[in-house]
Amino acid sequence: MGDTQIVIGSKTFPEGVALGFSTRQGGVSEGIYKSMNPDPRREDLIENVIENCRRLGDVVGFTPEDMVMTDQIHEDTIIKVTEEDRGIGLFKQIETNGDAFITNSKNVALTVFTADCTPILLYDPIRKAIGAVHSGWRGTAIDIVGKTVAQMSLEYGCKPENIYSVIGPCISACCFETQGEVPSAMRELLGDDAECSITRTGDKYHVDLKLINKLLLERAGVNKIEIIKNCTACETDMFWSHRRMGLQRGSLAAVIMLT
Ligand SMILES: [Zn+2]
């Protein structure tokens, strides 16, 4: 294995936030979680998970105590959090399930977990508000990212044109082979606009979830969109992939915090 890379960052976000997407490298976990698993919901040793979060935070610029986590359920519940919620997931019980977080509080590290699903981080430097979104294909089909942008506008007065967005490592069109239900759901949401993200091969389809989430961000009025190209299912020495590993794996964390 080459050099260890713990985190992939953004090349476009302005100052005022700490953010990053974890890889599977640079942690202390063993066995099927070797080595970077920051997800306490896996059956990994909690002391190793906390140390992994500490290492991740050392690179990105947060502490495990800053982190807020949830049980993601592929729906469109958006959880508004404040400083009082710091530590939920690692040190306090998760009480609210959802698939996206928003906050305008500093030192709250919004954390979503993925392993092929699409993570998206949002930042409005004018209103000083952030969001973190877990958008699997089901979440994409119900526009969780567009709803999160709308909620940031409602709660914090954000203007979509001021929001920076970054779409993180996820399963790409090369490996996301599906049955007809996925393209059907995307067509239902986007109409003809979905076609550019769908390729048919025989009786299967390949769907580009990054491109669909980009379209959804644009529809929500966001025009600052960075896409991290890595495919989690192609690069299995770098990322966890549910499609490649099933449940024999850790999770990737996407984290953002106002500093
Ligand atoms: Zn791939």
Report on the architecture of this protein.
This protein is an alpha+beta fold. The protein has one domain (7-258): CNF1/YfiH-like putative cysteine hydrolases (4-Layer Sandwich). It has helices at 46-60, 137-141, 144-156, 181-190, 209-219, 242-245, and strands at 7-8, 17-22, 67-68, 78-80, 100-103, 109-114, 118-124, 129-135, 164-167, 177-178, 198-201, 204-207, 224-227, 252-258. It has a six-stranded mixed β-sheet. A hairpin with a 4-residue loop joins strand 7 and strand 8 (129-135). The chain binds zinc ion.
Could you give the topology of this structure?
Elements (H helix, E strand, L loop, with lengths): L6 E2 L8 E6 L23 H15 L6 E2 L9 E3 L19 E4 L5 E6 L3 E7 L4 E7 L1 H5 L2 H13 L7 E4 L9 E2 L2 H10 L7 E4 L2 E4 L1 H11 L4 E4 L14 H4 L6 E7 L1
Parallel strand pairs: 3-6, 4-5, 9-13
Antiparallel strand pairs: 1-2, 2-14, 5-8, 6-14, 7-8, 7-9, 10-12, 11-12
The structure holds zinc ion.
Zinc ion (ZN) binds next to loops.
